[in-house]
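Board notes, transcribed. Complex of a protein with flavin mononucleotide.
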Amino acid sequence: MKTLVLYDSLYGNTEKIAKAIGEAFPDDVKVMRVTEVNPAELQNIDLLILGSPTHGGRPTKDVQALLNNQQFTLKGIKVAAFDTRGDSVITKIFGYAATRLAESLQKKGNILIGEPMGFIVKSTKGPLKDGETERAAAWGKEILKKMS
Ligand SMILES: Cc1cc2nc3c(=O)[nH]c(=O)nc-3n(C[C@H](O)[C@H](O)[C@H](O)COP(=O)(O)O)c2cc1C
C-alpha cells in the first residue's frame, strides 16, 4: 500500500503533525510538503492524507493551489484530511481547513476514510498543545486500520 502524507506549514507545527502521522505507517509512506510535489507524481498512490494550517478558516494558498491545479487528477482513492488550528471562539466562527480539504477531495471523486481531524496550537506560531503529536500518531493508526 502506497501512502502519501502531504502538508503545508508556515511555522513547523503542521509539519510535526504530518511526520507523526507518517510514522504510523510501517512501509511505503512518503511525507512531503505540498510545494515539493508534482501533481503528476500523485498517480500511483492508494492513500492520500492531506494537511494544512488553518488560515482564515481555510487551507493555505499553496494547498488550495495544488487542489486547483489542472494536473491534480487524483480520483477514486482513499483520502483523509487534517489541519492545525487555534482553539478560540473566534476561530470556530471561520471554520477549519480540514473540513474544507475533505469536502474538496470528495468532490473530486475520492473516498474519505475517517473524520477530518484538527490538532491544536497554543498560539499562531505554536507550540502544539501537549499530546497532539501522540494524538496524530493514533489518528494515523486508525486510518491504517481502516485501509486493511
Ligand atoms: C494568516 C493566518 C491566519 C490564521 N487563521 C486562523 C483561523 O482562521 N483559524 C484558526 O484556528 N487558526 C488560524 N491561524 C493560526 C494557525 O492555524 C496556526 O498558525 C497554525 O496552525 C500553525 O501551523 P504551522 O506552524 O504549520 O504554520 C492563522 C494563522 C495565520 C498566520
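Residues 3-147 form a domain with the Rossmann fold fold (CATH 3.40.50.360). The CA atoms of residues 79 and 112 lie 5 Å apart.
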